[in-house]
Amino acid sequence: MMTAAMLVAGAGAVIALIYQARVNDDVSTLRSVMKTAPVALFSLAALLSGAPWLLALGLALGAVGDFALSRKGEAAFMAGLGSFALAHLAYAVVFVTVEGRLAPFDLTALRWVGFAALVIMAQSTVFWLLPHTGGMKRPVAAYVAIITAMGLAALHLPAAQGVAMLGAGLFVASDLVLSVELFRMEEDSPATRVASHLVWPLYWVGQGLILVGIAWA
C-alpha cells in the first residue's frame, strides 16, 4: 500500500506542476479540476499509507478549499476560507498528538524563530490586513487566529517530523502572500500575477511536506 500511496502522491505533484502554468487562467471546469486534484490525491495517499485519519481529512478539506477558491464570488471565497480553517484545525490536532521519535538533529533554534515569526505575523495583521478586509474582517481575523494556532502546534512536532514543520511553515507563507494579493493589491496590478505564481508552489509543496512528514517520516 505504501508504494501505491507514493504513486498517488506523485501523480498529485505532477498535476500541481502542470497547473503552475494555469494559475492565472480564467475560471473554467478544467482549471478547477486541476487546482483541486493535487491535494485531493495527497489525501488519498494519506489514507492508503495508513496515516492518521485527521491528516487525510485535513488534506481533503484543503482540496475542497482549492475548488472553492478556483471559482469566483464572495460565497466561494467564504467557503474556501471555512474549508481551510477546518483543515488547519485538523492539522493542529495531528501535530500535537504525533508520538515522539528519535532524530539525529535538534530544532530548538528553528522553533524559537518560528514562534517569533508567527506572533509577529498575527499581531501585525491588525495594522496591514484587517483594516482592508471590509465586511469580511471578522472571519479573516478568526482565520488568522486559527492558522497561527496550527503553526504553533507544528512547532511542537518531534524533530523527526521536521519536514512536516517546514510544510506547515510554507502553508502559512502561502496564506500570507495570498492575503496580500487579495486585500492589498489592485485587481489589475501586474503584481497579482506574480503573487499567484508564488502562492501555488508554497501551498502545494507545503501540503505535500505535511503528508510526507507525518505519514512517511
Can you offer a commentary on this structure?
This protein is mostly helical. It has one domain (2-216). It contains 8 helices and no strands. It has helices spanning 2-19, 29-48, 53-69, 74-97, 108-128, 137-154, 162-184, 190-216. It is globular, with a radius of gyration of 17 Å. The two termini are 16 Å apart. The mean pLDDT is 94.
Mean pLDDT: 94
Q: How many β-strands, per DSSP?
A: 0
Return Rg in Å: 17 Å
SSE succession: HHHHHHHH
Global shape: globular
The portion of residues assigned to helices is over 70%
Terminal Cα separation, in Å? 16 Å
Beta content = under 5%
The largest pleated sheet is described as: none
Number of helical segments with 4 or more residues:
8
How many structural domains does the protein architecture include? 1
Secondary-structure content class: mainly alpha
Which parts are unreliable, with pLDDT below 50 for 5 consecutive residues or more? Answer: none
Quaternary assembly: single chain
Task: Give the structure's gist in a few sentences.
By secondary structure, the chain is an all-alpha fold. It has one domain (2-216).
Question: What's the SSE blueprint?
Answer:
Elements: H1 2-19, H2 29-48, H3 53-69, H4 74-97, H5 108-128, H6 137-154, H7 162-184, H8 190-216
Helix pairs in contact: 1-2, 1-8, 2-3, 2-8, 3-4, 4-6, 5-6, 6-7, 7-8
Features:
217 residues, mainly alpha
